[in-house]
Specification:
The protein has about 80 residues and is an all-beta fold. It has a domain at about 50-80. It is about 0% helix and about 30% strand. Strands 1, 2, 3 and 4 form a four-stranded antiparallel beta sheet that branches. The N and C termini lie far apart (about 45 Å).
Length: about 80
């Protein structure tokens, strides 16, 4: 990198943690047992934020714990609980 005159740019990360109340839906049914015996037995999801250009997009994939396959996903411009 020195020979080519390149320098890395490391930006400090800002604290972007959510300050509101968390939405919990039901009891902890998995209780840390994240292996499934058959397809469709246990599905999990989460919402992830991406910055694309000057916009924020939110992705909510649904993963089957049997084979770690993504069975569905949804994107939105707002983080909404109906995504999960």
């Amino acid at each position: 990198m020195t020979q080519l005159g390149l320098k890395s740019l490391i930006r400090p990360k800002k604290d972007r943690s959510y300050r509101g109340s968390a939405h919990v839906h039901g009891a902890n049914l998995l209780q840390r047992k994240s292996k499934a015996e058959r397809f469709g037995e246990k599905w999990v999801t989460d919402v992830t934020e991406f910055t694309v250009g000057s916009e924020k997009l939110y992705l909510s994939p649904v993963m089957d714990l049997y084979n770690s396959e993504i069975v569905s996903c949804e994107t939105s411009h707002l983080p909404q609980s109906n995504m999960v």
